Structure formats: structure tokens, C-alpha cells
Amino acid sequence: MSIGARAWTVAYVGVVAAFVAAVATYYHPEFGFTALIEFPLARHELEIPEVRNVPHYDHPDSGGYDGQFYAQLAVKPLLGDRTLDAALDTPPYRARRILVPWISYVAGLGRPAAILQAYALHAVVAWLLLAWLVTRWIPPTTGRGFVLASTAMLAHGPLMSVRYALPDLAAALLIAFGVLAVERRRPWRAAALVGAAGLARDTALSGVSLFAHGLRASPASWLRAAGCVLAAAVPLAVWFDYVRAIYRSTSFAGSDHFGAPLSGFWWKASGVWSGLARGGLSAPAIDDVAALVAFSTQAAWLVWLLARHRDASPWVLAGLGFLALAAVADPPVWEGSPGAYPRVFMPVMLAAHTTLARRPGLWWLVALSGLDVVPGIRLLA
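-> C-alpha cells emitted (381 positions)
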């Protein structure tokens, strides 16, 4: 390794070290890392007794965030408890995303205090694993590689998942491992990984688009791809049947976040434009513009690769699967500053960055695609 390559690699390690240092600031001697879960003090009495009675941090000035619900699921992952039903905003909707709660339960050995710590740190572990894995496609041994790898890991989607202990990053990590399995011609292993991602976040089953990579003129390739899609869907189908047995008629709650193609995107874009016209370049407006420009660039790049260069590589296909999901996502996914979409559609960003690493030049695309570090870094700063 040349001196220059070594220097860029050390710089990337420095980014990882800075991330660890930022996460360490959330540690409290009494509450551990539970500040990352964002339990609101206003809902303390609604928490399940097993959580309410162990030390954890309740934010006094926060309305809370989704991690509080999955953390309580982790303490009672078998569902059906009436106190759990009262503590969750939409129990059957949250219960579908059970993988991380189950992992946290096992890691915490069934003890509520340890489970909360495990859940609070799960996205930190996922971030570190992804920071290592992404170097397979984006070696940080050049200035270009350093920029692409660093902006991928410091983007809003990964850092929001860490800051609020959300399962999106775990799902994206499993999709990345699925891409690696397809590249190594292990489609059934990829099916298992995508299936696990679907249990972390049901919308992650959009990653089944990966299996189009193996399609050929032969019927056998189509049968294999169909088999992989079905195998990936089985874990969530089985778990959903269990959820349905408990919640009956309400088991489909939260499944209506879909609308006309691009309606959610245009709603977001028009809202960002209106916000700029009214309030100028405030901090939220800058976050909105940076995230939307980055996502639009990433989406356009993937579509151009497929349409112009017939690039049907695993990362391109995975990104396009999530892009198709983004096209029909309703406004609730896009609302906020910048909103949930950078984490929900995180594989679009990863696909764009990993494919940009394979092509020389195009620095303007690299810069635009990495703009979502602006709202990302603000989260942990």
C-alpha cells in the first residue's frame, strides 16, 4: 500500500473513531446508552412496568420517537400483553418489525435493563459493521474512495438510525450482505438475508429485486429467482400470521402508506420549495434541500445506469427496488425535516455510492450524492 493510500485509509479510520466518540457522549453512568432510544418523559406512565421500573433516560422536552416502541417490544417479543398494547402507538404495525427486538432480547438474556442497553446500541453495531463492509465496494484508499465511503456512513439515513435506535440500519446492513451473497453466487444465502431484513423492517423486502441479477434466457434461472423471492418472503409471512392471530382485524394497521406514483415525492419537493420561499435558508430548510437533492441525484444516477448502460449489477437492482418503493410512498414517509425517507430508502444511497466508486470522474455527482451528510452530521453533533 502506498503512502497516499495508507493516509486515506487512516483518515477513514478517523471518521469511524469520530463516530464512536460522538456516540460515547450519549452515555450516562446511571442510564447507560438509553438516551439514544428517545423515551419521552410525558409517556413514562404508559411504559410497560418492566421498562418503567428499570433505569433508563426519559427525555423531558421530547415527544419521543419510534425507537421507544421497538425497545418495549424487545422486552416482550412474544406480544399479546395488554400493558404492551397500551404502550405502543400501533401494536400490530410495530410488531411486524420484530428481528431487532428479538436480537436485543437474546443479547440481554431476557433481563429488561440489559435488553434496553442492547437495543439502544444495536444500530451502533450495525453502523460499525456497515462501515467495514462498505469498504469492499468503496476502498477508502484514494480521495474519491474516502469521500464516497465517508459520506455514505455519515449520511442522514445511517446516523438517524443510530441517534434514535431505529431498525432501518440493521435492515440496510442485511441487504448489503445480501448483495455480497449474490455477487458471490450464493442466491439462497441472499434470500435468507433479505428475508431477515424483512423481519427487521417489512419494507426491506423491496430488496428482492436483487434476484433479477441471475435472470437468463433459461427457464431454470427464472425458477431460481422466483424461488429466492418466495424464500425471502416466508419469514415475514410466518411472523405476520402470528401477529394476525394476536391482533386479528387490526393486524394490517399502518399498511396504507402508499399512493399514486411520485405523489409523495412531489408533495415533498413542493413543500421544500414553499418553505424556501417563505423562510429562506434556515437550518431546517438547508437540511431539506440537501437531503432532497442528494436523494434525487442518487435516484437519477441508478436509473441512468440501468437505462443507458444496461447495468444490472446487484447494487443497482437493489437500489432500484427501493426506488420503486419510494415512488409510491405516501407523504407521511416524506414529512418532517428532512423526514424519514433517507433511512427508509437507505439502500438507494448505498447503491449510488458503491456504483459511483466504480467509475472515474463525475465529481459533481459525487458531491451532489453526498449532500445528505449535512443533515446527517447535525444529528450527532
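The longest strand covers residues 39-40.
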